[in-house]
Amino acid sequence: MPRRGVKASVRRALGWFAALAIIAAAALIGHSVARRSALDHLREAALHRLDMVGAGLESNLARFEYLPSLLERTPGVFSLLDAPGDMRLRDELNRWLQGISATAGSSTLYLLDRGGVGVAASDWNESSTPIGTDLSFRPYVQEALAHGHGRFYGVGVTSKQAGYYLSYGLSHQGRRSGVAIVKVNLEDLEPSWKKLPGAVLLIDERGVVILSSRAEWKFRPVAPLTPLVIAEIATTRPYGAATLEPLDWRVEQGPGDEATFVRLGDTDYLMTQRSLKETGWHMIVLDEAAPLRAGARNVAVTAALGTAVLVLLATVVAQWQRALHHKLANRAALQAAHDSLESKVLARTAELSGANALLAVEIEARKTIEANLRTMQNELVHAGKMAALGQMSAGMVHELNQPLGALRTLSDNACVLLDQHRLPDARGNLQRIAYLVDRLGRLTVQLKAFAHKTQAPCVPVSIQPAIANAQFVVSQRLREQGVELQVQVQPSDLAALAEEARLEQVLANLLGNAVDAMATSSVRRVQVDANARDGRCIIEVRDSGPGIRADILPRLFEPFTTTKPAGSGLGLGLMISAHIAREFGGTLKATNLEAGGALFVIDLPLAATSGGTST
């Protein structure tokens, strides 16, 4: 055979070998890509199911955690624990537990004494009630008595139904008196799991399946249990009479550790799992792996066939290209490259020209916007100054109204006393007028300090004299309106860290508002109580008026909020009073009383000089 023929045969053989290699590589790549894509899709869907199922399970457990602790604040619980033989108490508590359990949607809510024996339960009228049953061997009872809280999943001793138990240790007078338990039925979740693709399992900390969309897998461990675990199960009896026969569970790692497969019997599954907080359980989703592998094989065959067609087409094209004249092809390619480059240069030049024009327009627009912004900023600054000036003027008018009214009353009384030659009484009125003039001077200084956000240091101020001075300021209004004022200060030397004049200003404002609020009330009574609580000085002002309107209460301490008719108030008194309380390191709050009327509470730091004790 000629040498040229041998070389041609070798080239053809190499070509076929290369073609077969390309087809095989395409099949392998197609199989790998299809398998990975299907695997990612399957795992993403499984993770979504896990998130949905796990969130539902966790929320179902979390919404009952508060329920056992309610029994610690329930009347009659500790009385029954002290006297378990009192049938009247037991009957009342049984019915109360039945109502609470029905409202919350729990399976059972019951009470154990310190010895772990049931004394009351929501299912008291059923044969499966835990009343009288000794449950001290259960871990959740032992944990609640020892640590205050307990959790446990298991089959009920009396009901023979599985559930999740949340326990809470009840403490009374410094010692653990009993245990409150709520049982949550988790088996209601299984029917919804059966509607999901694949299989859903919940495995507890011992490796035993406690919930499953496949009934035949329930209460079966995924691996043989150790003797220590078997002994613990025999003591606590979490699975009732289940045989605990292990599943034929074999874990296999996928290629490259990219996935975990489980073989159960003759079926392979892709396993996706996540851990649940607090419980130590694992939620697992199993999806059959056969469709995934079949799909990957189909894609590999399709890729191989497609590549073979492409190889054949490439061979035909190659043969056809050899028939073309290389010179003409090169010339045409060169001309095309030249034309393409020239058109690109022209297009780029046009784009740059347009961009420059747009940039110039944008610069002019930005200059115009900046000028408008500067003009708007100047206008806003001027408006802010005018608003601050208006607020200061309104505040001055509001705070001077009450002392000016008192001055008018005292001056009129002084004239009458002088006409009656009652000089000592007239001198007393003049002294009060001098006190109010000094108070007006301090108010102007305080309003100025308020505007400039300055603050005088707080000193111990006696509460009893401060209330008396505030009462004196509004005494004329109290008499005219027929208002009964009751004052109680405990202890009598109670003092708070504040500023005397400004504290009196707050008290006078609250008393004046109370008088106005009771203008249409048949019973007109204001009660002022002051005492020490938890290291704080608490002053409460109650009235018997109609209370604060619901639409006004949320914005009561905002400027210009008032229910008084035009000309009777500016709506600044409570805003200023709240500001003063904050400067003292305290608060001013308001609420409505259930019996009618409004309650204002001043919370101030307690002065060290106060002789009272915290309660």
Task: Describe it.
Among the domains are: 68-185, Beta-Lactamase (2-Layer Sandwich), CATH 3.30.450; 342-451; 455-605, 2-Layer Sandwich (Heat Shock Protein 90), CATH 3.30.565. The radius of gyration is 43 Å and the shape is flat. The strands form four sheets. Strands 7-6-11-10-9-8 form a six-stranded antiparallel beta sheet. Strands 2-1-5-4-3 form a five-stranded antiparallel beta sheet. Strands 13-15-16-18-17 form a five-stranded mixed beta sheet. Strand 3 and strand 4 form a beta hairpin. It is of the alpha+beta class. The protein is 51% helix and 19% strand. The longest helix is centred in the middle third of the chain and has 94 residues, at 326-419.
Put simply, the count of helices is 13
In CATH, what is the class of the domain at 455-605? Alpha Beta
Give the low-confidence spans: 380-392, 449-453
Q: In one word, what is the shape?
A: flat
Which sheet architecture does the biggest sheet show? Answer: 6 strands, antiparallel
Assigned CATH architecture of the domain at 455-605: 2-Layer Sandwich
CATH homologous superfamily heading of the domain at 455-605: Histidine kinase-like ATPase, C-terminal domain
Ends distance? 118 Å
Mean pLDDT: 81
Secondary-structure content class = alpha+beta
CATH topology annotation of the domain at 455-605: Heat Shock Protein 90
User: What proportion strand?
Assistant: 15-25%
Taking Cα atoms only, what radius of gyration do you get, to the nearest Å?
43 Å
The assembly state of the depicted protein chains is single chain
The strands making up the biggest β-sheet line up spatially as: 7-6-11-10-9-8
Helix content: 40-55%
- How many beta-strand segments? 18
